[in-house]
C-alpha cells in the first residue's frame, strides 16, 4: 500500500478512537449511576444509550449523499469532522443533563434526550464517513491489507478504551462526586476532540480517488432498491444483526448487573470495560494473523463459540456471587468479541462494492446500530419486566444473557449460507438499472 494511504489509515484510526472514546463514560459509568444509584428504570436508560443506534438509518442517507455530493470539495472528511465533534460534545453534556434529571425529572429528561441525540447523530455521521474512506483507501490493495486496516483501527480503539476505562476508574476512586464525574467526562471530551481534529486534517484529497466510481443514483429510494435486491446482502444484514445483538447487547447491563448481584462499587464496575477491552485487544492483535492462516469465516465462528461460553459463565458467576469468576468471564467475552470483530469487519469490507461504497457501508452501519438498539432497549426492558414479576433483580439480567447466547447460535447457522462471491454476483445490478426498472 502507498505510504500516503498508510498515513491516512493511521489518521482514520485516530478518528475511530476519538469517536469510540465518547461511548466509554456513558456505557461504563453513567449507565450504572442511572440504573443502580439513581433508580431510573433500565428501559429508559437503555433508550437514551441506544439513541445512536436508533438513529442509524442516517448512515445510509449520509453515506449515499456523500457518495454523490462533495462538501467543500471533499466527500468524507467534512462529515468525519462534523460528526466527530458532535459526538464528543454531546457525550460530555450527558453527565450534566442526567444529574439535572435526577433533581428535575421532566426538564432533565428533555435535556437528556437532546444531548444524547446530539451524541448519537455525531457517532453515526462520523462512523459511516471514516469507514467509507477506509474502504476506498484499501480498494485494490494487496491481499491482507484490508484485514490489517481493520486490525489497526480496532486495536487502536480497544487499547484507548482500556486506557480510558482505567483512567476513569482511578479518577472516580479518588473523587466520585458530581463535580468529579463532570471533570472525568470533560477529560474524555478534550482527548476525543483532539483526536478527531488531528485525524480529519488532510485525510482526504479533494475530488474522488481515481479508482473509486461514485454512486450515480441521486434518488435514495433507488439506492435502497439496489441494496434490497441483493439477497446475499440481505442475509449478511441479518447475520450482522444477530452477531451484534449477541456480543454487544449487554453494554448497558454488565455494570449494573455487577452492582446488583455482586455489590461492586462505581470504581470497580467502571473497571469492567477495561477487563473486557484487554480480552478484545489480545484477540484483535492475534486475530490479524489468525485470519490469514485460518480464514475470516473460521475465526468468526470460533469467536462466537467463545462468546457463548463466556455468557454462560457470566450467568454462573452471578448465581455464585463470585466477583473474580465474573471478571474472568468478562475477559473471556472480550476474547470472543475481539476475534469476531476483526473477522467480521474484514469480511464486511469484502462485502462492499466500490461504486456504492457509502451505500453499503451505511447499510452495514445500520445493521450494527439497529442490533445494538434492539439489544440495549430490549434487554433493559426484559430486565425490568423480570424484576417486576419475580422480585429477583439478578434474573432479568440472566434472561438477557441467555437470549444473547441464542442469537449467536442463530448467527452461526446463518453464516454458513453467505459468501463474498455470491454477494459480488448479486451486486452486479447497477443502481441506475434498478431505478429504470422501478419506473417501468
Features:
440 residues; disordered C terminus
> What number of structural domains do the residues give?
1
C-alpha geometry: globular
| C-alpha termini separation | 44 Å
Q: What is the helix content?
A: over 70%
- The fraction of residues assigned to DSSP E strands is under 5%
Average residue pLDDT: 78
Helical stretch count?
20
What about the largest sheet?
none
Just give the CATH class.
Mainly Alpha
Any idea what the CATH architecture is? Up-down Bundle
List how many beta strands DSSP finds: 0
Spell out the CATH superfamily.
MFS general substrate transporter like domains
Task: Give the assembly state of these chains.
Answer: single chain
What is the alpha-carbon Rg in Å? 21 Å
Write down the secondary-structure element order.
HHHHHHHHHHHHHHHHHHHH
Structural class: mainly alpha
| Unreliably modeled segments | 209-220, 430-440
CATH topology: Growth Hormone, Chain: A
